[in-house]
Design goal:
CATH class of the largest domain: Alpha Beta
Shape: globular
Number of helices: 7
Largest sheet: 5 strands, mixed
Low-confidence stretches: none
Number of domains: 2
CATH architecture of the largest domain: 2-Layer Sandwich
Radius of gyration: 16 Å
CATH topology of the largest domain: Beta Polymerase, domain 2
Length: about 180
């Protein structure tokens, strides 16, 4: 099954990953936020931890990139989303926790619109049961349409949930 019921273990996974990544950064100032469905208590999700690494000074990006590459990540550019750089594991397993826990890592400047949208969406779902329930129902419907195929599910989610997600972000911005 693509979607799993919420697990408190996901917060633990995030903390473990964030600690390892922070160590790899060797003192570079940044914040790491748990975003995505696994960051919202009581929301079903694919058990993949989404993380946004936030840096303040533009000059820090090159150092962050270098340190992440030394830690076994490859930079995949912004993949069409401005101010959100994607880093993926290199595929050469080192056996450490960064290879054992599935995750997505995005590196964003503090003023990134993509970052702000991630945080607004997460925080709105955490605070509003109705929005969280509707989002969960949509996720179940898409998983059923996809016949539990993760690739089809991802495509359907991208195509069919954009309006819902944008409406949540608009609502969150209005109530800020």
């Amino acid at each position: 099954m693509i979607l799993q019921k919420y697990s408190p273990e996901w917060s633990e996974w995030f903390s473990t990953l964030a600690g390892e990544i922070a160590r790899a950064l060797d003192g570079i100032a940044c914040t790491i936020e748990h975003v995505g469905s696994t960051s919202v208590p009581q929301l079903v999700a694919k058990p993949i931890i989404d993380m946004d690494m936030i840096y303040t000074h533009p000059a820090d990006f090159d150092r962050i990139k270098e340190n992440l590459e030394k830690a076994g990540y490859r930079h995949h550019g912004d993949q069409g989303i401005e101010d959100r750089e994607v880093f993926k594991r290199s595929g050469q397993s080192t056996g450490n926790v960064l290879d054992r826990i599935r995750h997505h890592l995005y590196v964003c400047p503090v003023k990134s619109e993509a970052l702000q949208n991630h945080l607004l969406f997460r925080d709105h779902l955490r605070a509003h049961d109705g929005a969280r329930s509707r989002y969960q129902q949509l996720k179940y419907e898409l998983a059923e349409q996809a016949e539990q195929d993760p690739k089809i599910y991802a495509k359907l989610k991208q195509d069919q949930m954009a309006d819902f997600i944008e409406s949540i972000i608009r609502d969150a911005k209005r109530t800020q």
